[in-house]
């Protein structure tokens, strides 16, 4: 009996150790699949923001990205075209994993090139239910990740923040597709264990061999509001130069990359 | 007429109220296919109704409204492979000063040359420098009348007919702006707001009391700038005019004295915040020794700023600003009204709070200027509600305090006002 218990404990310890590496690998691959496809990329994007009273707003923009290193620092350029009060507004981010990002905002009506200070990444991205972090990625080192179970289709992970005071959630769970490593469903729970926020992937397409999220939805279950995000005409590995992501692009966004490839 | 404008806005907005759909068809019907092929031509703009009323009374004016207007802003852009054409204008019915006004904001061609140079040719709005509502090296025209009257902050910048050439090199970027005929600020001239006139020792206004000789000379502005790993460094030069007519010529007419500005700035992140430092030497070319009593002296101007997010959605910025008048003894020795001259070192502190709520639909803002030297202040509170992509409403105020009639902000105590703006954008 004792022997069996010993064996069980040993096996259990082994499997924990194994899942430890598995979890790190899964999280790493999910991060790469979600935010680092190709060395660079572009896509048209459109959001519909719907509040509880069914009032709708729209945001339309083109997003350009270049990775300096897979899983590491990145450059983003976001050029808005709608609605008219944000038309030609440009957002430039030099995203850094180890320190604060450098961010600039260009406001065309004032010809104002505005350096902006780092902000809480879990605040609304341009008035939508998406957070900055949903769009550019959450640092994988900020949370403890645990593989809860797996089946044919998904890895089921639960993650808890290392610094609970820095975020509004107590934990979140992910369903990560085993074939693509894209998180297809993320649910955020509050201190009471209730799900209050949900990020769902609605449609995925193969683009140049990269599984690419084409449609996703964020729901705020507290307010009843939600945001739909749709991508169109994504393309990867275009050979974007570094100078696409410099201050010049604030006043003169690169037309050749803004247009569909 | 203004009321008609408001009804027109409501009528135009009808289709917005009419639209309805269910969540299920969001993906298809509502989005339509109109983002399929980008059109080279685009139109956008807004209709706005605005009212502002003095909080106290300025006896110089019979009408205590400072703003009562219906405004149509329209932008037309044409995008060609090799150039962009930009046109935007404002047409507004001004019930305070009277009449239908046209303000051409942009009429320019934008194109690139040699791969590394961008050109903007024509009427345009230009901004540079690191200050927040404080300007040291930005000598481009500003519209102080709009700023004080409660129009949108975007109207602080006024357009000029100019050519701008910006070249980007490995070592350095160079920005040139040539304005063939100098474009002054839209300064406080007595029409909408009264101002203190030192030589009379009293407040003047009620009509256009400052009617200066228009400048004829060109303005040259240059900026050398570089971003070194997030540290933004710039050097500035300017040869042109004082942007407000703070000189009086031999004929007794107000005019825009000639001026040079030399300066530098640095901006970078420090921890979670953002720090900026800017310095400028303003040289009064028509009063190089400071002994001309009717022409403003030169100045050193210094600015130190810090900005950060205090808590989620609440941003705070502060600035310390110094204006040091050069040849101060000469100024005082020759001044016709030394009691009304500014202090040799004029200190100003500013603070800005911005709070976004309701998923950025509601924005609370407070900007305060306070000068311990002049013992005066200027408060700009506002709240903006963005109902949807079409409708926005802004309530706000512009409040001046001061102990003396002659100080920079104090002279505008009776210009303190509260405003409301309603905007429909398309």
Nearest-integer average pLDDT of chain B: 91
Counting DSSP E segments of at least 2 residues, the number of strands of chain A comes to 13
Low-pLDDT sequence parts of chain B = 13-24
Number of domains of chain B: 1
Task: Determine the mean pLDDT of chain A.
Answer: 91
The neighbouring-strand order within the major sheet of chain A is 6-5-4-3-2-1-13-12-11-10-9-8-7
Q: Main beta sheet of chain A, described? A: 13 strands, antiparallel
CATH superfamily of chain A, please? Lipoprotein localisation LolA/LolB/LppX
Class by helix and strand content of chain A?
alpha+beta
Organism (chain A): Marinicella sediminis
Domain Uncharacterized protein TP-0789 (chain A): 72-251
Protein name (chain A): Outer membrane lipoprotein-sorting protein
Keywords (chain A): Lipoprotein, Signal
What does this structure look like?
The complex is a heterodimer of chains A (261) and B (426). Chain A has 261 residues and is of the alpha+beta class. Chain A is built from four helices and 13 strands. A 13-stranded antiparallel sheet of chain A has the order 6-5-4-3-2-1-13-12-11-10-9-8-7. The longest helix of chain A is centred in the first third of the chain and has 34 residues. About 3% of the residues of chain A have low confidence. Chain B has five helices and 22 strands. The longest helix of chain B has 11 residues. In chain B, a hairpin with a 4-residue loop joins β6 and β7. Chain B has one domain: Porin, CATH 2.40.160. About 3% of the residues of chain B have low confidence. With 426 residues, chain B is mainly beta. At the A-B interface, β1, β2, β6 and β13 of A face α3, β1, β15 and β16 of B. Chain A: InterPro entries: TP_0789-like. Chain A: Keywords: Lipoprotein, Signal. Chain A: It comes from Marinicella sediminis.
Short synopsis of the structure:
The complex is a heterodimer of chains A (261) and B (426). By secondary structure, chain A is of the alpha+beta class.
């Amino acid at each position: 009996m004792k022997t069996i218990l010993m064996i069980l404990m040993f096996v259990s310890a082994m499997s924990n150790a194994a899942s430890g590496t598995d979890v790190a690998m899964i999280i790493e691959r999910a991060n790469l699949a979600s935010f680092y496809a190709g060395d660079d990329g572009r896509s048209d994007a459109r959001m519909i923001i719907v509040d509880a009273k069914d009032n709708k707003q729209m945001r339309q923009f083109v997003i350009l990205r270049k990775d300096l290193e897979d899983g590491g620092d990145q450059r983003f350029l976001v050029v808005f075209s709608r609605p008219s009060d944000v038309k030609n507004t440009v957002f430039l981010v030099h995203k850094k994993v180890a320190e604060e990002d450098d961010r600039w905002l260009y406001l065309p009506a004032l010809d104002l090139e505005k350096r902006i200070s780092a902000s809480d990444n879990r605040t609304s991205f341009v008035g939508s239910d998406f957070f900055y972090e949903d769009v550019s990625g959450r640092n994988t080192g900020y949370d403890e990740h645990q593989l809860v179970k797996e089946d044919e289709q998904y890895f089921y992970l639960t993650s808890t923040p290392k610094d609970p005071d820095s975020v509004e959630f107590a934990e979140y769970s992910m369903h990560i597709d085993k074939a693509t490593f894209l998180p297809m469903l993320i649910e955020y729970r509050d201190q009471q264990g209730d799900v209050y926020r949900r990020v769902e992937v609605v449609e995925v397409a193969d683009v140049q061999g990269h599984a690419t999220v084409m449609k996703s939805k964020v729901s705020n279950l507290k307010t009843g509001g939600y945001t739909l995000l749709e991508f169109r005409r994504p393309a990867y590995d275009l050979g974007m130069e570094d100078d696409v992501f410099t201050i010049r692009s604030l006043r003169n966004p690169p037309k050749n990359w803004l247009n569909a490839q | 007429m203004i009321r008609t404008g408001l009804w027109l806005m409501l009528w135009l907005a009808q289709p917005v109220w009419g639209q309805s759909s269910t969540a299920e068809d969001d993906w298809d019907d509502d989005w339509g296919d109109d983002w399929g092929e980008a059109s080279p031509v685009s139109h956008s703009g807004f209709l706005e109704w605005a009212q502002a009323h003095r909080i106290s009374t300025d006896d110089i004016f019979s009408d205590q409204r400072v703003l009562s207007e219906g405004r149509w802003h329209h932008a037309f852009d044409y995008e060609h492979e090799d150039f962009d054409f930009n046109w935007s204008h404002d047409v507004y019915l001004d019930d305070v000063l009277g009449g239908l006004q046209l303000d051409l904001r942009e009429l320019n061609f934008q194109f690139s040359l040699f791969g590394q140079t961008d050109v903007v040719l024509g009427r345009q709005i230009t901004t540079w420098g690191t200050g927040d509502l404080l300007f040291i090296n930005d000598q481009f025209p500003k519209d102080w009348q709009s700023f004080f009257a409660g129009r949108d902050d975007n109207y602080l910048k006024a357009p000029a007919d100019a050519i701008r050439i910006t070249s980007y090199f490995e070592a350095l970027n160079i920005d040139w702006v040539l304005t063939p005929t100098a474009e002054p600020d839209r300064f406080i001239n007595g029409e909408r707001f009264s101002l203190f006139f030192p030589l009379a020792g009293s407040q003047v206004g009620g009509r256009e009391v400052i009617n200066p000789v228009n400048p004829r000379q060109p303005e040259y502005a240059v900026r050398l700038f570089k971003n070194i790993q997030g540290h933004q460094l710039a050097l500035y030069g300017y040869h042109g005019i004082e942007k407000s007519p703070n000189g009086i010529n031999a004929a007794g007419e107000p005019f825009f004295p000639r001026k040079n500005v030399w300066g530098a700035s640095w901006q970078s992140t420090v921890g979670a915040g953002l720090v900026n430092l800017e310095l400028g030497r303003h040289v009064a070319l028509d009063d190089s020794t400071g002994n001309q009593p009717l022409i403003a002296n030169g100045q050193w101007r210094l600015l130190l700023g810090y900005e950060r997010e205090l808590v989620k959605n609440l941003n705070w910025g502060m600035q310390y600003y110094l204006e040091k008048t050069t040849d101060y003894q000469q100024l005082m020795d020759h001044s016709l009204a030394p009691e009304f001259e500014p202090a040799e070192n004029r200190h100003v502190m500013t603070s800005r709070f911005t709070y976004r709520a309701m998923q950025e639909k509601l924005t609370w803002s407070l900007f305060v200027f306070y000068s311990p030297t002049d013992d005066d202040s200027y408060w700009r509170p506002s709240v903006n509600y963005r109902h949807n992509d079409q409708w926005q409403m802004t309530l706000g105020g512009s409040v001046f305090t001061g102990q003396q009639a002659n100080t920079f902000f104090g002279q505008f105590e009776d210009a303190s006002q509260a405003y409301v703006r309603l905007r429909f954008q398309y």
